[in-house]
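re: ur question from the group chat, yeah i did fold both. here u go
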Amino acid sequence: MGVNWTAEQQKVIDLRNRNILVSAAAGSGKTAVLVERIITMLTDEEHPIDVDQLLIVTFTEAAAAEMKERIRDAIEKKLEEHPGNEHLSRQETLIHSAQITTIHSFCLSVIRDHFHAINIDPGFRVGEEGELKLLKHDVLSDLLEEQYQKKEQRFLDFVAAYGDGKSDKKIEDLILKIFEYSRSYPIPNEWLKRCVDAYRIESFKDLVESDYGKYLCMNVEYYLDDALSLLDQGLELCKKEDGPKAYQDTLECDKKLIEKIKMAENLEDMADVLENFSWGKLKANRSKTVSEEKVKRVKTIREEAKNLIDDLAEQYFYQSIDATIEDIKSCLPAVEELTFLVREFAKAFEEKKRSQNMIDFSDMEQYALRILTEERDGKLMPSSVAKEYQEQYVEIMIDEYQDSNLIQEAILTSVSTVESGKYNVFMVGDVKQSIYRFRLSRPELFMDKFNTYTIEDSQTQRIDLHKNFRSRKEVLDSVNQLFFQLMASDLGGIDYDEQAALYVGASYPESDQLDNATEVLVIDNDVDSLAEVSSEDREGKHALRGLKKLTDKELEARAVAVRIRELMKTHQVTDKETGELRAVRYSDIVILTRSTQGVTDVFSEILSREGIPTYTGSREGYFATQEIGIVLDYLRVLDNMRQDIPLAAVLTSPIGGVTEEELAWMKSKYLDVPFWKAVTSYVEESTEEDAIVKCMKQIDAFRKIVPYTSIHELLWKILDETGYEDYVSAMPGGEQRKANLKMLVQKARTFESTSYKGLFHFVRYIEQLKKYNVDYGEANIEDEQSDTVRIMTIHKSKGLEFPIVFVVGMGKGMNFQDARSRVVLHPKLGIGLDVVDLERRTRCPSIIKKVIQSEETVDTLAEELRVLYVAYTRAKEKLIITGSIANRERRFVWYKMACDTEEQVLPYYRRCKVSSYWDWVLPAVLRLKESKVIRMEIWNALRVVQGEIEREVAGDIKRQVLEQWDTERVYQSEMEQNLNEQFGYRYPYEYSRNQKLKFTVSELKKRMYQEEQSEEELENLGEELYKEPEVVPLIPKFLQEEEELTGALRGTAYHRVLELLRFKQITEDYGEDELVKELLAYVKAGKLGEDEAGCIRSRDILRFLHSTSGRRMIQAARAEKMFKEQPFVLGVDETEVYPEGTKGELVLVQGIIDVYFEEADGLVVLDYKTDKIFSAEELAERYHAQLDYYARALEQMTGKKVKEKIIYSFTLGKEIILK
């Protein structure tokens, strides 16, 4: 049965030969439509294409893999419908190499295929995150040191003005921030140049015509419009029957003054009007018919309008225009020096990476752009390489286009044929879901096309997908009702109107008992204001005392736990398989949070305490965990023992086992020396081996092997020999702690693949990761597919859907750190600096910085609004919005003022003057008085703990019942009988619990050989365990004496050669020259190691080939009846291995037969041996059991008789035939 596509979806699938922008709302099935478009193109009857003629770019590796899988499935379904279709069969093969990839993977493939175009070594590698941070730090340190040595005044003034005087960290962070920002532009140095040019202001005209001058004028207009809007609200209230009419004249006068500012011809005139601006005094209101509430509201509204004008004057008109221009000019040397340092760092960093044959992620884009474009007349045009890609790709498809940036746009445009007039770019996305601004995405790229592409047929066409096939009507209606009021082009990037709204496309089963209205749970955190609990309510008083100790996050987590328990009891969701309603499971619920920091741990702990299982993916604070901290301190001590704090930490840890008292007593004997010196002196002088001495001796032993031991091996040794791994495994949360330690070992392996080597650099590597807040998160030991409530960030949830969604943290403050930093950045306006007067020691923001700060704040708010939209649209059936609130009554007065606004969209100033999500959501909810799809509840602390009080009371009742229980009485005789039977059960095969049920042939051979020895020998040998070989010190080659491989390694080499030799091509005159030539070919092909080839004695191999067995094998090989390296698994009766075992039970035996061949009268099995045993009888005695198992396995596999078992000994140079 085919899919019923909507008219818009069908248009997306069918339209060709044009640029298409698909604006796809949340849940609109864009991925399914994209796959269908691809399949339609592949199966087009007139012009079918191959899948590798499409370039499909997605945002993440996971999305690329999912896309490829969907296309593969679709091709397979088409093949089932059209079996034998050669074109479809070819697509099934081509899909594996098709370019369905991320932008970075595509760039990497361009660089690997055309490395010569940018003169890069083809063997380059992508640097590891920690390694790159170290490298950046090293390059920056060298750069700044070089600048300090030059002692140029401009540099010294810059450091004095923008550093902190203690270290260069602020300067380093600033250079890195601007460097990373500039790399998102096709030509980074051009953007840096524009940043400098912004400060080249000579006149008032230059200021007005500059980019930030235009933004300044636009912001001034926003301020004035909002103030006028407020005064209009006040006037409407004054005109009401019970309104304060006495205030009307004053408000009219205020309005005229503001209109006068607005009518000023330029900024200078505005400044003059503002300078003489004064607010009139409200007349006394003596009428008794006037509503006191309206009086207060008018006064509050007017106060807000005054604040807006005062803020405007303070923000932009705080000094004369001439003084403003002088401030801008005074910043010019600083911005020149800053951009100079960024360019010098970029150059030095690239040289450093080149010297180590390494690139990073931003290099991928920059290098690919260099290969694919060339500059002509100041514009980037496709290069000859790009034209090759243009011929290869019929269409460029870009998923999540709203998250692209300028350099990605330039790369993908260069491989399209747009430049030659043939439009072939297909873009799909949703600007309302653009939430990757921190990765320098540019949603305005999407909006430029959204506003310029036409809905009618054209070469640049836009198609809107409005229907949502994910969510219930209640969810969509509530999202629409909120975002109609909150999102507009001035904040959010798009007008959220009927055109942008979500429309129902999914059908769900209905029930009268089902309440799917969106819930807004406001948790009042004011515990102190609660009414006194009754003195007899002991449980209530106890619960309230506990609540006073809770943080806002903990209180909210408790509220969420209460609501989850209620949902589990009463709510139903639709089963994905049956389509019927069923009870809620934990796995139906997700908790979404803006950030994991300080949230996931709290929610996970409290929900778990309430008996609700959770899955968090990974928790923050990896380096802060106790087990990791101790191991890192141990490594610091091994690297440099003269570190008091790490040394004391190791000694008092479970590894050292030293008490604080012992440490204090030891230090008291050496008062005048550092702690590390006291420890070493104590160890040298001690006559007894106490905990301190024992620990320090172990540290000394490890320090000796550090020079020749890899870091990951050193870590394993420390964990094993100190017993620390076993210790943490036995601690609470032992499994998690052990996983964390294994993760550290894995990080050590990763480090060893970088250009940095040795313990010193590893310790420094970890320190840099901590310094730059790179937190891997604790190792994940949970199963995401289990029945648990998932806790994840909103960003991680993008593209996912869940039946019940809690969006938490609505009361948490928003992060405006970027707008408030010392130096601010903007994609169009450049770099905003403070005006610093070093002589007067003063600092104030320049007008450029103020404008950028304002724009940065608006951009941050727009991003947060889009994040909120993404969070709310994850819900399929029920959405629950929660958050705590302080000073609720006062805040609600301000929120309720929004109800006076008649416009559907809340005023701009209200949407911009927010500090938390509640400042958006609650005014919008309070305006929806008649809404049936959004329900707001205010929970106080008693509502949160009500369930806990009830459970505590029930627990007391149960306790009383149990305390009065008659233990002598049998209440249920049948239950007693069942319990006696169950507890009396004994496992009949208890003896087998310590027995192995699977053996290798070598293990069984050894076991049987031991059993055949004398009783005395058996006692001495015992049951041998496999032992790891000793670590061979990594001694430099010039200190080694050349020696051949020995023992097992030599045996492996001989077996490998005999496996590779082509027996059927060996002739009678095959000699040493032919053998050596063949060995060299194997080495060159990578089939045989040089060390392996070096230990082969050609005479040994030739002697075997010319032996009777060798000649028989050659003959069998020519008849295609010789078989090498045959694996097998054989079941043998348990009593053969364990005489006391049960007959009929099987033990598995596995192994690999070196070679067997077939002759006319049966099979021959042969095993090669390189053991240094000089007696044929001893070899036969030791290995006859092994060949017996080989023979049994062969007979079972082939059904043919094994007539002969042969051992060939290379030591003896002869064959031994076993009986």
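okk and heres the other one u asked abt
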Amino acid sequence: MEMKWTPEQQKVIELRDRNILVSAAAGSGKTAVLVERILGKLTRKDHPIDIDQLLIVTFTRAAAGEMRERLTEAVENYLEQDPENEHLQRQQTLIHNAQITTIDGFCSYVIRNYFHTIDLDPGFRTANEGEIKLLKQDVAKEVLESSYQERTESFDRFVESFATGKSDEVLTELILRMYEFAMSNPWPLEWLDSCTKAYKIRTKEELVSCIWMKKLWEDAGHLLDQITYLQERCKEVIYSHGGPLMFGEALEHDLLFRRNLEEAFATQDFDGCRVLLDSWKPKALSRKKDDSVQEDKRELAKNLRDQAKDAVKKLQENYFYETTEEVLEELELCREPVQELIRLTRQFIETFSEKKRQKNIVDFTDMEHFALEILVKKEDGEIRYTQAADEFSDRFEEILIDEYQDSNLVQETLLQSVSQLRFGRHNLFMVGDVKQSIYRFRLARPELFMEKYETYSLEDSVCQRIDLHKNFRSRAGVLEGVNQIFYRIMGKDLGAVEYDADAALYPGAVFEEKPEGVPEEPACQVLVAQTGTDGMDEKMQEQSDQELEARMIGEKIRSMVGTELVWDKKEKQYRPARYQDCVILLRTITGWAENFVNVLMDMGIPAYATSKTGYFSTTEVQTILNYLRILDNPMQEIPFTGVLLSPLGGCSARELALLKACYPQEKIYGCVWNYLQEGQDGELCEKLGNFWAVYEKLREKVTYTPIHELIGEILAKTGYGLYAGAMLGGAQRRANLQMLVEKAMEYESTSYRGLFNFIRYVEQLQKYQVDFGEGNIRGEQEDTVRIMSIHKSKGLEFPIVFAAGMGKRFNMSDASTGLVIHQDLGIGMQAVDPKERTQASSLVRQVIQKQIRLESLGEELRVLYVALTRAKEKLILTGTVKKIEDYQAVQAEAQDWQEEKLPYGMREGARCYWDWIFPALAGANEEFPVQILEMEHLITDQVTDREDRVRQRAAYETWDPQEVFDATIRKDLEEKFSYVYPYGYLQEIPAKVSVSELKKQGREEPEEETVYLYAEKEQEPIIPDFMKEEQEPLLQGAARGTAYHRILECLDYARVDSQQAIEKQIEELLKEEKISKETAKVVRSSQISWFVRSAVGKRMKEASALGTLHREQQFVMSIDASERNPAWDQGEQILVQGIIDAFWEEADGLVLVDYKTDHVKEGQELIDRYQRQMHYYCQTLERAYGKKVKECYLYSFALGKAVAVEV
């Protein structure tokens, strides 16, 4: 069925010769439209293009793979209709190498093709994340160490300013953070230099015109607007019917102060504002009693005025707390430490780059910058595009960028460089949704999207914007709920885009009416668990809240599964909801997912987290890591104790206490050693002896055993691999241990070596939260509730979505560090006076902190938007609150607000999602009903559930298996369980065997030594180079035979007249890399010469000249299984495979020759060994050629003659 496109989608598909920005709302079918646009270019009648003339950039490899798959399938469908179309046939071939890739993939492609232009070794390797983390740490420490040795005054000031605690680890973190920010810019060193500009200001004029001061006035202006709103609202209440008129005098005083403040703001008089704020003393509200005043209005007016006073106080404390002279003094104090930080970061960049060059590795950041260096040069501030950039520009007809809202400045510069914009042709196609830009932590720049969004025209033009509003994913009720919330909370001032009629979601999907009699419930709902306060510490309270919320969600899932109807796209009909239809989305899964899974499983609801964290904290992984730590260094007290307490040691806490009591001055390692010599407890000595024996053997292997093999040996020799598999959740634990082995193999591919560095590698991954997630043992199609992060859910859709954790406080850690960093505003630090020993937040830091916080809030808004737009049928928001009354009061206030958008102060002051959701839903109880559950109710249900399970368990434990409840069922079960498969013996019969296996049949024979194509190398002893003796490698056994076979396979019989001619051929084969050096050395040319001069050799030469000689002929034939083993059933067939060395055709039949390098004294030995093998060779040739094998020979190089074999 042909797809029906909307007019806007049709424009996206058809418009040509322009830059196009597609603002595609959630669920608007942007991927389908993008694919259709590409297909249109490939299949148009006038000048169709080739797929490799397009550069298609996606955000993830999975998206690139899906895009390639869709295009391949579409091209194949077109070919079915027009199979003779050569252009489409060519696309089918080209698509596999077309540039449908991520930005990293494209950068890699650029580097691989133009590495020579930047003097890069083409053999470079892409380092993994753990290796790069280790190297960064090492380089940062090296940079700091060199500065400590030089000990300049500037460096001392830097250390005093930033390393205020006992450790200087914070300095390493600062350098690494500065590095990350710098490298997200096209010209990192320029960005670093720009960070010092704010601290070079020396005059008031320079201060007034600087970028961060302009931002100060902008942010302070928002606060002033909030003050204005609150005061005007207060005025309305005071002068309304029943209002507290006696408050009017105090309010008028406030209004006069505000007007003066507005005048100072208008002229941007910084000192004037400070004086006004310093001198302001608000009047006390009148306490006069008046019975005509309504009490609720009195309280509301008082509350509004208090909020306005708080906003004024905030304005003074955040911005106008010092004079301009004091601001300049602050900047002077910060100048030297900031310049030193920039110097250290520059040195880090240089050293880190050099280390990577030495190791010949690159990371993903390097890829972008190397590609940029290949394509663009910047000289004297001017950008110049290279020949490579021009070649790419000529090649690509159009550049299509998916998820454009997540681009950064480096990526923007890269893609601009390969476009044709500088040649006057617009060929950029960008698609995305700024409302779904949720990768700020990766330094994405949604401003790039917004710049084009605001400048591109909706009318026909060379830079055109097309908005896709219709959502083809969700029910109208879900979209109405999402719009209801975001109309009120998302704006240009917070969230980067104005959520208005142009940005709203409109239903495009068609859902059939539900069957009659099925009640129509609201598509959106809020579930709140009120927890109250019970004096728990913060961490315990958070865990308790999570468990209550999970239970609340679990009860809702129970009520929906099997009863709620959902639309099945595949079946095209309604069906009862299943567990797999439900997904729980969390802002972060760290510390949440495990609690949710445990609670749901405890309720009997199957659940799993699709991308669990906590891999390194699992019992089995921690146990093996501790064992590795003590193999590296046994003097580590905690790991050694942990291992002894684990199943690896088998000791109890009492036994460990006994060890320490016997030897209180010793470390636990010494305690174990001494107790083994002197201990009295036989059972404990036996445990420790068994542990020690394995431990010592493994320690001996540490220096020369690869880590993954060492882990394998630990699991095997201690039995812990089997033990973990037998524990509860054994399959998961085995998967985790297998993943540890895989990660060890990954580590071994890095430039680091040894157990000590592997432990460091793992510790760095833990420190920087590079968690692998537990090994996944579940399939996507299992009927289970999925729990995932909101980021992981992007691009996906689910019938029933629980947006959970709405009460979790936002993470604002980026704005609360000692040094704050912003892409545009630079860096802000604490002003530290080393003489006075004082520290205070500088004004520039205050401004940058505020901006980071606002951008973080904007990001949280967009994350919420992504979560809410995943739902197809049902959207349920869940979370906990301590006092619901507080939110009900806020709702009442928001309901009185006349404008659609909530006040900026209310939105900007949010600490969690509830702070937005409750005010936004004020008055929307029917469309978005709120259900509040008390903690007592949830706990009662939990207790009832557990009591039921206890009763069920008791019933199972006392079950009498001999009692017959239903004789028919019992008989049926007995028959099924006693069934024996009648053809079980067939499992012994192999499907395929080699001739070598068959020749062993019936006798024990000396064999040629087996040779493996990929043999595992034996561990060589560690010997210094100067002590090593030069030894020639000598092939033995089957390897020697293989060498002779290879020479005879390649031998040109037209050039074998002499031994010298044969030697020359061997040299040629070596040069052509058809044989190895070892083969050339082991084969004796005299033996080859003797062979070709033999009677058999001469006949082979003649056959070669006639073209009837066949060499190294592979074959597969079937034989009766009873030939292999008489006990096996006749009639069953098995396949025999092998390779015939040589045979040739003569007029009266075939002649077969097999070469043998066995050391034998007479020909009969060979006949005895290989007669059965030759029988199968003859049988194969006679079947294949329909001719009789008239002669059969084994040529022995040891005897120098051919031995005839009767067949």
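fwiw on the second one: The first strand starts at residue 19 and ends at 24. Confidence is low (pLDDT under 50) at residues 1002-1023, 1025-1034. idk if thats what u expected
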